[in-house]
Here is the input.
Amino acid sequence: MRKENVSMAVIRRMPKYYRYLDELYQNGIQKISSRALAEQMGLTASQIRQDFNCFGGFGQQGYGYNVDTLREQVASIIGIDRTHSAVILGVGNIGRALIRNFNFVQCGFQLLAAFDTDTSIVGDVIHQIPVLPVDEMDAFIRENKVEVAILTIPAAFAKATAERLSDLGVKGIWNFTNVELQVKNPSVTVENVHFSDSMMTLCYQISED
Amino acid sequence: MRKENVSMAVIRRMPKYYRYLDELYQNGIQKISSRALAEQMGLTASQIRQDFNCFGGFGQQGYGYNVDTLREQVASIIGIDRTHSAVILGVGNIGRALIRNFNFVQCGFQLLAAFDTDTSIVGDVIHQIPVLPVDEMDAFIRENKVEVAILTIPAAFAKATAERLSDLGVKGIWNFTNVELQVKNPSVTVENVHFSDSMMTLCYQISED
Here is the structure.
């Protein structure tokens, strides 16, 4: 179902489709037209059809989408129907918030462990996730073939840590350090979380002309 | 410089432009062609020209952009050249992380206060921000004409709190509760932060075909 050369704009809409479809599904809605889905999501119906055509297209003109089926197809496109492994580096406020509140399973991930340099929290278990010493990280990542590392460490360590993770064989880095990261190995994906982009978008919308 | 009917896709690219232009500026780069900027940002040169045309267009064909000027123009479009007021509701892990680490000033905001129901932290001062009791919130927001409220409270309280904030006259809500919020008053903007969209995008990219 995957296609090459799908634009990042389309890829970034997929989680949003999943979010809306999942809500419809949870509310017991079985069918929805592309027009109704478009209205709810603030897109156009033709945009939605184009997006799904990137993955082969689903639904039949005039019949609308079967919510349950489309939801599963989108889940499969995103890859959340499989389980990927993740660890978290840095158990500060953001790290702790993610461990406690983020629904990793819903996003296709199993969080295996957290790592920190602070000996006063190493050994703790937060929400069933063990906090391990950072000098066990390399062996743990290699042995468990960890796919994704979540960076919630101070910005100063971001770049070097990302390269080290890349060398250890992770496929992806979820970066909360506010440093725009790229790693040398092109097969490692970095997803930079920019709170400031979101806050600036809000700034635009509340600012007077 | 503002225009009506600029699409959200264009608006959402503005903070990204600012981020890249600011980095060029910090590195002492004075001129950049739309092509070079496009390459760095993973866009096309024509996309960049189209985006800026939404706001009147800057730069002259063949001469490239003056980094300093364009950075200031983008700042003005976004509204971060003015100072907007904000308060934060909920001093849990995410709230605390934002107070400590988020650069509000760079995003055009001054954080005035934080509110929490937990009497054991009310009275604390975190990074010069006072933690006030939640029953002082209404008066504080009205008296200080607070423009934006940042929601880092438990999801269960999100909807009711958002409506209350809307009644109190805030213009925007920055929502970290993982609940997709809308408020009845259409003039109040809600910016929902969805960590899951970001994690799912990463999931897509690391998943095998």
Q: What stands out?
A: The mean pLDDT of chain A is 93. DSSP finds eight helices and nine strands in chain A. The first strand of chain A starts at residue 31 and ends at 32. The CA atoms of residues 114 and 131 of chain A lie 5 Å apart.
